Amino acid sequence: MARAGITADRLVAAAAELADEAGFEQVSLSALARRFGVRDASLYSHVRSLQDLRHRLALRAGGEMIDGIAVAVAGRSGRDALAAYADAYRAYALAHPGRYAATRIRIDPTLVDPGNTAMRRTVEITYGMLRGYGLAEPDLTDAVRLLRATFHGYCALEASGGFNAPRAVRASWERAIDALHIALRNWPREETDHHG
Predict the structure, then answer these.
(1) Are 47 and 11 within 8 A, CB to CB?
(2) Are 163 and 157 a contacting pair, CB within 8 Å?
(3) Cβ-Cβ contacts under 8 Å for 131 (sequence gap 6 or more)
(4) What is the DSSP letter of 189?
(5) How far is it, in rounded angstroms, from Cα 149 to Cα 131?
(6) pTM for this one?
C-alpha cells in the first residue's frame, strides 16, 4: 500500500484485523508497518506509540461491542434485556477474540479523546439495563462487576476450550443468565448487615 494511504483510522482498523488473526499481544508497530509496506518510523506520524495504538484499538473495539449490545437491548427490560446484553457480549467476544482482548486493557481516561463516546455509552447502556432491577449505587457498581466477571470468565473459558463436560455450552450459558437474573432481582442491599 502507498504510504499516502495510511491514516490513523486505517492503522487502527489494520490493528483490529491483526488482533483477531494473531492475538492482541501480537499487535505491534513493526507488524503493521510490514502490512502497509513502510518503515516503522513512518507510523509515528499517525500514532504516538504502541500504547497509543492499543488504546485506540481498545476504544474502537469497545465501541463496536457496545453498538451491538445497544441494538440487542433496545426496547427490552428485565431478563430479556439481560439475556440480549449477555448474548451480544458473548457473540462479540467469540467472533473477535483479539479485539475483545483489547477491550480488557486499562485505559487512562486522560488519553481518551473527548469526542469518543464508547466508554460513556457502555456505562449508560449497562447501568440503564441494571436500573431496571431497581439498583442504585453502590449496588450498581457491584452488579456491573459481577456481570463483567461472569461474562468474561465464561467467554474466556469457552474460547480456550475449557468446557469439556458433555452438556451443551449454550445450555449452561442460558442457566447462568437465569441465575444472574435471579441474583439481580434479589440483590442484597448494602445497608443490610447479615453478620451483625
Answers:
(1) yes
(2) yes
(3) 140
(4) P
(5) 19
(6) 0.90
Environment class of residue 179 by beta-carbon count within 10 Å: exposed (0-12), middle (13-18) or buried (19+)?
exposed
90, 149 in Cβ contact below 8 A? no
Q: Which three cell numbers stand for residue 98?
A: 483479539
In this predicted model, what pLDDT tens digit does every residue of 6-35 receive, in sequence order? Answer: 999 999 999 999 999 999 999 999 999 999
User: Crossing angle for the helix pair 169-185 and 78-95, nearest 10 degrees?
Assistant: 140
Residue 21, C-alpha cell as written in the block: 488473526
Per-residue pLDDT tens over the stretch 82-120: 999 999 999 999 999 999 999 999 987 776 777 778 888
Residue 75, phi-psi category: left (phi > 0), alpha (psi -120 to 50), beta (remainder): left
Name the burial class of residue 176, with classes exposed (0-12), middle (13-18) and buried (19+) by CB atoms within 10 angstroms of its CB.
middle
SS3 76: coil
**Cell for 143?**
452488579
Alpha-carbon distance of 176 to 174, in angstroms, equals 5
